[in-house]
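Cross-check.
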Amino acid sequence: MARVVPCMNWKILVIATILFSPVPLIGEKRSIPRSVPKDVKKEIEGLQSREPKERVQAAVNLKGMGDKGVPAIPFLIDLLADDTPAEFTFEKDNHKIVISGTPSLAAMGVLKNLRTAAVESLVEAMTGSESLVRVNTARVLWSINKDPRALSTMMQAAGDSDKQIRIRAARALGEAGDAGAIEVLISSLKDPASEVRAVAVDALGLVSSPLAIEPLRQLLKDENGDIGFRAAQALKKQGWTPEGRIEIVAFLVAGREWNALAELGEAAVPALIEILKAEWSVAWRASETLRDIGDPAVGSLLVALKDGNSQVRCFAAKALNRNPDPRVLEALITAVYDPSKIVCQEAAEGLRQIEDSRFLESLCGVLMSDRIAVNSGKIYAAEALGKIGDKRATPALLTALKDSNESIRESAADALAELRDTAAADSLLGALDDPWGDVRVAAADALWKTNRDIRALDAMIASTKDVRMTVQSEARLIRLLREITNQPYAYRDAAWQRWWTANRETFLEKLQEHR
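Predicted model, tokenized:
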């Protein structure tokens, strides 16, 4: 009688099947052994789907199966070169959330989970596959058992001719965290591709070694601000702290430690001025920090306001435009004439705070100039003249009342309302016919405040029917009418016209009695 051989453990059978499965030809799907359980087979078929989302989802499902997913190992290794992006959208707390991934990352997650069952297949794939597969395989293998062959593979890939492979290798070496890779990562800091250098810097922050300190310190002042920032973060992870004022400033600047730089004060000013040439968002933060530093930064900012680089001038003006120092205000008035619109705009903001009659002549010059690059220069000059309240500004404001820009005309009328100069009455009366409703309201307000002219009220009542005014002017008009007439009607309410028709003569008589 023949001897019956007991069935081997199913895992041993599966591993044997994997080791002796033929590698598929390019473009050909690997065949699925018949011995694979149906539910696992279904997910393996998903790994071979044409849709990247389905490939990722199948890998996720296999991870949830635990050791039962061992038959999928060769198929998962096939995905290690698949970097096709896949997005998943789902709802959470009434918000749409989008997450992204790739089949290769999903496959790596499953292989790491399978651990020792995947080792032999990973070793084989690491030695005979394309570069991306070798790197990803080495990453998985290292995470499983710290195999020295995996580290060697990642280090070799750091010198690959393909930039993307070098990036993957540097990232993988950082994840490995082994000091044996430190020299390779330091060499990657000189890579011609900035993306590789950036990842190498990040990786050095993860590999604990005193050898990483000096190369990272040298990068704090790298001309590429992103590299400098990453170097500062890497040095923090290494536990390094700067010594001496120069090094402290360089470290804080590279790390974009704005609050600390503001507290450092004058010592940080030269470095912050230099950053005004950097990428826009970084330069903006530097200008805000210089503003926070205040008076110790004024001298350097006034020099920067004359720099040949318009961006530097712009951010210097931004840092100065809330400083009431007379030197600053004088410089900002000059900067309003800057040919660069962005400089002119930031400088103009500073005019809004002027309330000193010493600047009256200069502000009138701005208002009457035809060399101002942006309208806000004249708008804020008019606003400042209104605050100063000196009637010597009336001629310039009357000129602005005829400007081609409606916002400038409106600001001029508002300023004249503050001056209450009867010499402006005729011009304000003419402005009651302005085609722009907001200007008519401002002119009527100014005319009423100047000499209680009944025609100002005529214009206000007529404007209650204007559908083209801004919301702000509508609110202003109704507020004025309610204050003057003590009537409760709303904007565009026909009751205003009816009431005025019935009460205008009586209202006029009362005005004449009080004069």
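Residues 1-8, 10-27 have pLDDT under 50 and may be disordered. The CA atoms of residues 22 and 30 lie 8 Å apart. Passed to J.P. for a second look.
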